[in-house]
C-alpha cells in the first residue's frame, strides 16, 4: 500500500472536520477528493502533509506511520503540496521562484554560503538545472525571465506546479488546481496534470469541477460532513445514489 489513512479523524473543538476516514492513494495514479464546501477535503490534505496532527487514526506512507512527523520531514519523504499562487514572489521571475523549490533537496549551510564552498557551487548548479527542467516541463521556458506579477492566472498556476516539481516529489497534492481559470485553460492544466502522472508522479487533488474530475481521475473519494460516503472509479461515483443525493443535488452531470 502506498499512502493509506486508517480511521483518520480531526476535531476542531466540537466539530468533526474529518471523521474516521479510511482511504488509500494509488501510486502513479490520479486520485481525487470531492465533496461540498466544508466537507473536510482541505483538512484531509493537511493531515496527510503534516500541517495538522490527527486527533486519532493514522497516516501510513509505504507502510510507515507518518502521522506524527512534522511537515518538513514529510516533504523530505517526497510528499509535495502545491503552493497557492498568492505564495509566489510577484516581483521575482518565474526562474527565481522555482529555483527555491529545489533547495529542499540541498545540504549547503551558512558556512558554505559565507565561504562560497565547492559544495555550494555544485548545489546551486543542480538547483538551476532542475529549475530549467521543470519550467520546460510545465511549458513556461519562453517566459522564465518574466516577473510573476506579469503572468496570467493560468501561468501562475503552472509556476506553482513547477515549484512543487522542483522538490523532486513522488506525490503531489493539488488543492483546486484550476480554480479561477477559464474552461480552455482548465483543459490545458488537466493535460499537464496527466503528463505529471505519466512521469510516474502520484497525484492527489481536490476539485470542484465535476466534469474535469470525471475525465481525469482514476479514483475518487467523496467526503460529506467529514465522512467518506463513497470511493471508486468516476463511473461508480457517477452512479452512486448517496453521492447524487448529497453532492450532485440529484444531477450526476453537475
Ligand atoms: N483550523 C481550523 N479551525 C477550526 N475549524 C476549522 C479549521 N479548518 C477547517 N475547519 C472547519 O472544518 C470543516 C472542514 O473544513 P475544510 O476546509 O477541510 O473543508 P473543505 O471540504 O476543504 O471545504 P471547501 O471546499 O470550502 O474548501 C469546516 O467546517 C471548517 O470550518
UniProtKB/TrEMBL annotation:
Transmembrane segments: none annotated. Gene3D superfamilies: P-loop containing nucleotide triphosphate hydrolases. It comes from Oceanobacillus iheyensis (strain DSM 14371 / CIP 107618 / JCM 11309 / KCTC 3954 / HTE831). Residues 3-250 form the ABC transporter domain. GO terms for cellular component: plasma membrane. This is Branched-chain amino acid ABC transporter ATP-binding protein. SMART domains: AAA. GO terms for molecular function: ATP binding; ATP hydrolysis activity; L-isoleucine transmembrane transporter activity; L-phenylalanine transmembrane transporter activity; L-valine transmembrane transporter activity. The keyword Mitochondrion does not apply. Pfam families: ABC_tran, BCA_ABC_TP_C. The keyword Nucleus does not apply. It comes from the Bacteria. GO terms for biological process: D-alanine transmembrane transport; L-alanine transport; L-isoleucine import across plasma membrane; L-valine import across plasma membrane.
Amino acid at each position: 500500500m502506498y499512502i493509506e489513512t486508517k480511521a483518520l479523524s480531526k476535531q476542531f473543538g466540537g466539530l468533526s472536520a474529518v471523521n474516521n476516514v479510511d482511504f488509500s492513494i494509488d501510486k502513479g495514479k490520479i486520485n481525487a477528493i470531492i465533496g461540498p464546501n466544508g466537507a473536510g477535503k482541505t483538512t484531509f490534505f493537511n493531515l496527510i502533509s503534516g500541517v495538522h496532527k490527527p486527533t486519532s487514526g493514522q497516516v501510513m506512507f509505504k507502510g510507515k506511520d507518518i502521522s506524527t512527523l512534522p511537515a518538513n520531514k514529510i516533504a523530505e519523504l517526497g510528499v509535495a503540496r502545491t503552493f497557492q499562487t498568492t505564495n509566489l514572489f510577484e516581483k521575482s521571475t518565474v526562474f527565481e521562484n522555482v529555483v527555491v523549490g529545489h533547495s529542499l533537496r540541498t545540504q549547503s549551510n551558512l558556512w558554505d554560503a559565507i565561504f562560497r564552498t565547492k559544495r555550494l557551487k555544485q548545489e546551486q548548479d543542480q538547483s538551476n538545472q532542475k529549475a530549467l527542467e521543470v519550467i520546460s516541463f510545465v511549458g513556461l521556458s519562453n517566459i522564465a525571465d518574466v516577473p510573476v506579477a506579469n503572468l496570467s492566472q493560468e501561468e501562475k498556476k503552472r509556476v506553482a506546479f513547477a515549484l512543487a516539481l522542483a522538490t523532486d516529489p513522488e506525490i503531489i497534492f493539488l488543492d483546486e488546481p484550476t480554480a479561477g481559470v477559464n474552461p480552455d485553460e482548465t483543459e490545458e492544466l488537466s493535460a499537464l496534470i496527466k503528463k505529471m502522472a505519466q512521469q510516474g508522479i502520484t497525484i492527489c487533488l481536490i476539485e470542484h469541477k465535476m466534469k474535469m474530475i470525471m475525465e481525469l481521475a482514476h479514483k475518487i473519494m467523496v467526503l460529506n460532513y467529514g465522512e467518506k460516503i463513497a470511493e471508486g472509479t468516476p463511473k461508480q461515483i457517477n452512479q452512486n445514489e448517496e453521492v447524487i443525493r448529497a453532492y450532485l443535488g440529484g444531477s450526476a452531470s453537475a
